[in-house]
Design brief:
Number of strands: 8
Strand content: 15-25%
Structural class: alpha/beta
Radius of gyration: 17 Å
CATH class: Alpha Beta
Number of helices: 8
CATH topology: TIM Barrel
Shape: globular
């Protein structure tokens, strides 16, 4: 039986994508503007990356820093961006919004799901800022296409969230906990053994794939090091 874990790498452009695939990434998260923690890339960027690699691509749907969808006009702009990406051929996405009380913004999420109907998607680290993680998961449990939560277990990162991640990994048979846990956010190589021992098998890296920081490109060698670690 294969022990291969899923390794997802953030890519900003086609060069990043090629390096990540060369290093052994299984999937890419496509974003722009990491100064704002990752926003929706232009459809032209998606097209260039899609032409450069043949692994799955999940495209971020978020137009401003933070986890609020913003004004009605902001939501309309996001819906239009999602529609443009679908026209370009995008078929996997990353999204997630909270209201002012820290609960899931179901109105916005469902607006977007109407546009990306039939696509698989990740609810991103908004879960780590939710008032009640358990309630959020149960509210989202039946939304079509949701197969993954990107989470560190805590807004402060994996160091603080490790016990939560391990506990949630043990609840996969419960309603609301069937989706994959994709661990990311302050993730380090030394976290991997405990996470793998708990049964977690999906990992997300951004800065860890870039030895020279966000101003530098993805390193195939850095990705290869992670590939080896998560499969051990």
């Amino acid at each position: 039986m294969s022990n291969r874990a899923l390794l997802e790498v953030i890519a900003l452009d086609a060069a990043d994508a090629v390096a990540a695939q060369s290093g052994g990434a299984d999937r890419l998260e496509l974003v722009t503007d990491m100064a704002a923690d990752g926003l929706t890339p232009p459809r032209e960027t998606f097209a260039a990356i899609r032409a450069a690699v043949d692994i799955p691509l999940r495209v971020m749907l978020r137009l401003a820093d933070g986890f609020s969808a913003g004004t009605p006009a902001d939501v309309e702009a996001l819906v239009a961006a999602a529609a443009g990406l679908r026209e370009e051929g995008a078929d996997e996405f990353v999204l997630g919004f909270l209201d002012t009380e820290g609960r899931p913004d179901l109105v916005t999420v469902e607006r977007l799901l109407a546009v990306i109907s039939g696509c698989s998607w990740t609810f991103h680290r908004a879960i780590d800022r939710a008032t009640d993680r358990d309630a959020l998961r149960k509210q989202l449990a039946d939304l079509p296409g949701l197969d993954t939560y990107l989470t560190a277990g805590s807004a402060a990162g994996v160091d603080a969230g490790l016990s939560t991640l391990i506990a949630e990994a043990g609840r996969r048979a419960e309603p609301g906990y069937e989706q994959n846990l994709l661990v990311g956010g302050g993730l380090r190589l030394d976290h991997v053994p405990a996470l793998r021992a708990a049964g977690l098998d999906a990992f997300h890296i951004g800065g860890a794939a870039r030895p020279h920081g966000w101003t530098g490109p993805v390193s195939a060698d850095a990705v290869r090091e992670w590939r080896t670690a998560v499969d051990s």
